[in-house]
Amino acid sequence: MEKTMKAVRIHGPAKARFEDVPLPEVTPDDVLIRIRAVGICGTDLELYDGTMFYLSSGMCKLPMTPGHEWAGDVVTVGAHVTEFQIGDKVTGECSVGCRSCVYCLRGWYSQCPNRTETGVLNRDGGFAQYISFPRFFLHKCNRMKLEEAAFIEPTGIALYPTKTLGICPDDVVAIVGPGPIGLFAIQTAKAYGARTIVLLGTNDQRLAIGATLGADVTVNVTREDPVQKIRQATAGHMVDAVIEAVGKPGAWEFLPSILAPRARVAVTGLYGGKKCQIDFDTFVVNNITVYGSLGGPNVWDEAIDLHERGLVKAEPLITHRLPLSEFERGFDIVRNRRENALKVILNP
Fold first, then answer.
1. Per the domain annotation, does 272 fall within a domain?
2. What is the domain range of residue 72?
3. For 325-344, how does the pLDDT look when each residue is reduced to its tens digit (9 = 90+)?
4. What residues contact 12, with CB distance under 8 A and at least 6 apart?
5. Most buried pick, 7, 68, 113, 268, via CB within 10 A?
6. With a threshold of 0.85, does the pTM exceed it?
7. Both 11 and 140 in a single domain?
8. Computed over its alpha carbons, how large is the radius of gyration of the chain?
9. Are 122 and 12 within one domain?
10. Which helix (H) or strand (E) holds 70?
């Protein structure tokens, strides 16, 4: 095997190169994987632009290789690795905990103060031909297409709040935001038996995709009254559980008004420092519970199982495929939503 590989390296704001770098080291607990597919996420654009919080706060340094939505096949295993074999299809988690702090020992490794995050925080990611990855945070996906397996990470981000909220067949569920996370959340909520799923957003094309994936009601909030439409669709019951997947303050202008008493809300969107005006009287009077939802800890094997059983599908979200060398074109497609872009796959 050659000692170098091609990778995308971010060197500064809007300064990234597709260049030769050393092949990553494989320690006894690591697995070397040939990357076959990697998705572009909004976080990758923030890193490229230099606006991502981890960069502005000094938590991580450049240069770095982005990419936290990836899948590939095993080419080398470390001396301590017995659970993976050469040729296995695999994907790896974003949050990689230290496995020894109080948060990791409780299973909360996405809160580990010593964590790295693949392609985001002090750990090179999947915008490369190869990645070396710790076996403890690696998962087999042998019955999946690798292109779809690259989206286990966003599936996990949708599945985690689905489980946190305890979504069940008695629930009317609202998904706010028909982006990739919201579209996966429709499918995870449906897999958990939600009685009715309402999708709210501003993009008709994405709302239509949501309807094909299981949304029973769609609401374009730019021209429809979400309160009135949900009241009509639920015979006045309103919404028992909400997965907020948009990260825009405007969502909170209507969100309190669609909640049923004792509703639960999970917030997955990041707001980039923008402030929200929230009617907390509604939350107090109606005993509303709000959860923050970061990443997808402890749900990866279940997310893979949902895909393998056909209960969650990534293929309808993949709109573009490009070679890794054309990453800047891919960034432009995602940033400007060209040609109704949803997910862009890069092939190293």
1. yes
2. 4-151+314-347
3. 999 999 999 999 999 899 99
4. 50, 62
5. 7
6. yes
7. yes
8. 20
9. yes
10. strand 69-77
Q: CB within 8 A of 106, min separation 6: which ones?
A: none
Distance, in Å, from the CA atom of 211 to the CA atom of 186, rounded to the nearest integer, reads 9
Interval 56-72 mean pLDDT: 94
Same domain flag for 280 and 325? no
In angstroms, what CA-CA distances link 256 with 23, 182, 183, 220, 244?
51, 19, 22, 17, 12
Which pLDDT tens digit goes with each residue over 16-47? Answer: 999 999 999 999 999 999 999 999 999 999 99
Q: CB under 8 Å to 73, separation ≥6 — which residues? A: 33, 34, 36, 87, 88, 89, 90, 146
Greater confidence (60 vs 102) lies with 102
Mean residue pLDDT across the chain = 96
- How many CB atoms lie under 10 A from the CB of residue 95? 25
Alpha carbon distance 115, 283 (integer Å): 33
Count the domains in the chain. Answer: 2
| 129 lies in the same domain as 165 | no
304 domain residue, yes or no = no
Predicted pLDDT at 269:
84
